[in-house]
Amino acid sequence: MTSLMTNTSSMVALQTLRTINSSLDDTNNRVSTGLRVNSASDNAAYWSIATTTRSDNGALGAVKDSLGLAKSSVDTVNTGLDTVRNALQKVKEKLITAASPDADRAKLQTEIGSLLKEVRNNAKSTVISGSNWLSVDSSESNYNANKAVVASFSRTGDSVQVDTIDIDTSKFKLLDSNTTVHSAVDSAVTTASATYSTAATTATTAFDTAKTTATTTYDTAIGTADTTFAGSAMDAAAVAARDAAYATAKNTRDSAFTTAETTKKTALDGAVLALKNSLGASGTNDLGILDKSRVAATANGKATVSSIMDIDISKLTSSQNDLDQIANYTSIVDAALTDLTDASTSLGSTASRIESQTNFVQALQDANNRAIGSLVDANMEEESTKLKALQTQQQLAVQSLGIANSSSQSVLSLFRG
């Protein structure tokens, strides 16, 4: 039956064309965006997973930026430490020169003072993002020696975790302007130095007394032996007996000397140790590498207390006491150089860890991008083929609809006479 009101063929052709147009729109959208899942309506599960992963990737990007900033900070501090170490090495060389008998120590002190000023300026100018890790004031309320660098972001179920790399700047700070600690250290230096000086004087006096007593005893023993054998016939037996008396006297004296030396050294070593302990208890170890008070002592018991920044040889002479002080200054600088080397080693290890973590975070981002792509990216080869097929189907559907619509025109032939 042919009906003018209801054209079933046209309705079917129109529905087919609508379906093809809808599929063509979807395919065009995939081709233009490169995604097969653009919204939750396309695939709710995949869209949810991809959206969460994209969010995590954004967090990882922030972590990578934080690591980059931390790496820059560590590199800047390392540069500052290297500059200071080079200047301090020159100070050490000047002190070695100052140990020469004819050295002009006043001029050498001028050079040393210039180098120490350069060191202070370098420490104060090593600024990273508005903060200074080398020249600090630990008395400030907002001071925190621990610098926590965001190092990772991870998700377990609905919970997330942010981990950090902790950098303890107290291990390599150079200067600390904490006046409270400096005052305590200065007071401790005065007291401990006086105590050491008294102990050293007592030990030296005891040594000199013991040495004098041993020498007197020796001279008396030699005199007695000479008197004993002076009037006798010096046959072989008498000579042997006299020589034995001499030897006994010498051994007794030498033994007394050795005992006195050991006693003196033990006393001086104890005094130096007490000096170091007193300074340690005063808080000097809380100061920086360059302004902490250090103790150095020569083998003969001459001790010197000084920080790197307080070294002054301008008034020292070529006396043994002053030469010992120069030697102690050299030891103090050498100890500071060792601390700087340890600090650079620690920072180098931290820089290596930061770089490794940066590479790991980048690898995580790449893995997440691949996971997102596998879920929501469109297969462009497949979509291209589908697009061409749908375009062909659309053209055929349009023609089919035209044919279906033209069928009603045949009714007119029934009414022609």
Q: What are the defining features of this structure?
A:
7 helices, 417 residues, two-stranded parallel ribbon, f41 fragment of flagellin, N-terminal domain, mainly alpha
Note down, in words, how this protein is organized:
The chain contains 7 helices and 8 strands; from the N terminus they run αααββββββααββαα. The radius of gyration is 45 Å and the shape is rod-shaped. α2 runs antiparallel to α6 (320-376) and α4 packs antiparallel against α5 (236-282). β7 and β8 (303-306) form a beta hairpin. The strands form 4 sheets. Strands 1-2 form a two-stranded antiparallel sheet. A two-stranded parallel ribbon has the order 3-6. A two-stranded antiparallel sheet has the order 4-5. By secondary structure, the chain is mostly helical. The two termini are 22 Å apart. It has 2 domains: 37-173 and 349-396, f41 fragment of flagellin, N-terminal domain; 179-286. The model has no long low-confidence stretch (mean pLDDT 85). Residues 6-135 form the Flagellin N-terminal domain. Keywords: Bacterial flagellum, Cell projection, Cilium, Flagellum, Secreted. It comes from Ancylobacter koreensis. Belongs to the bacterial flagellin family. Residues 331-415 form the Flagellin C-terminal domain.
